[in-house]
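Researcher: Good morning. I'm working through a list of sequences from a screen, and I'd like to move beyond sequence-only analysis. For each chain I'm collecting a predicted structure so we can compare shapes side by side. This is the next one on the list. No need for commentary yet; just the structure.
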Amino acid sequence: MDFTFLTSPEALSALAQVIMIDIVLAADNAIVVGIAAAGVAPEMRARVIALGLGAAVLMRIAFAVVATQLLQIIGLMLAGGILLLWVSWRLYRELAEPKTEEAGAELAADHATAEQIETLQLQRPSKTFGTALTQIILADLSMSLDNVLAVAGAAMEHPEVLVIGLVLSVALMGAAATYIARLLNRYRWIGFVGLAVIAIVALRMIYEGGHDVGARLGFM
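Model: Good morning. Structure tokens for this chain:
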């Protein structure tokens, strides 16, 4: 890649904007991936996260290629926000389910042997691999759209900046999602805080998308 474009003040400004946008939105995306991955068996968790990140990369590349056309589609942001809100609701229901087996394993930890604890933990019901991956892909769809539309105005004339931002966001998502998934196994309340963040993102997308639809149709 030719980095001579960084000598341009405009390109440097665009890069700074894209990095800030990607840091914020990558954190949101990582929360969704981490919450979804935390529900699967530990031996499948890394694979779910890897496939989820791969899907995010492909979607962001595809959306970046057609970013100009996406900006012209009325209601796309609104639809993405509704989809993300639905994913948040599904994840909330899973987090809110009572984990009796998990509580039993923790209660027995002080008196059981290591083998007994391991057996109790293996008996805990886990989310299926397919369910977790589907939730991640649906969230990726909405949040990748949000990311590309957010950076399109800042970096449309500098494709190199888009590439740098894409690589950065995926790296941040991978590191953060793995860490969040581990934390959720110990502190379930973190999942509810994360879902609140995702719900806010979804509601913002719905508000902005609805406002755009109203403006395009002459209602505002």
